[in-house]
Amino acid sequence: MNTKCSTKWRSYAGCILSILQALDMIDLDEALGAWVERLSNKERSIILKEQLNWEREVYYYYLLIFDWFKQKSCHELNVIHYNIILRTLGKAQKLKYVESLWNEINLEGILSINSTNATLINTYSKGGERDEAVRWLERINEGGMKDEVAMGIVVQKYTKFGEFRQAEEYYKR
């Protein structure tokens, strides 16, 4: 089973701890069904972030949980939930799913935030898709970013691509 068994999980109480443990042992409906109408946005975020069972393909399981939440009409999914899934797919190098999820975000009318754009830059950059990463850099430049962490990622990606002049210009702006 899971060797990373979370010391972090100890900080969770009540239903979250029960759900996280149940998700490692039983199916989604059994693990989440009893809590279907009582989970807050924050609790859904924690559940999406804290999947630790590496015996299954984690990105796929994240998508299953995410889809389960989407199917339940009592669950509102927001940009933070989408960002968690984008980051997970990026780590798993599943770029076709990233593009699909981005299309879904647009179809659902969910407004992206700076961290969404920074996640996409990071995902495409680490996935070796330089042109896509630069496309997101340009989009952020056009929109005027105000998040220091995301701005740091932008500068880091410019320098990784060897575009030092653009990194310096971006930093000065």
UniProtKB/TrEMBL annotation:
Keyword terms: Repeat
GO molecular function, one term: mRNA binding
Keyword Metal-binding: no
Family: Belongs to the PPR family. P subfamily.
Protein name: PPR domain-containing protein
Organism: Cephalotus follicularis (Albany pitcher plant)
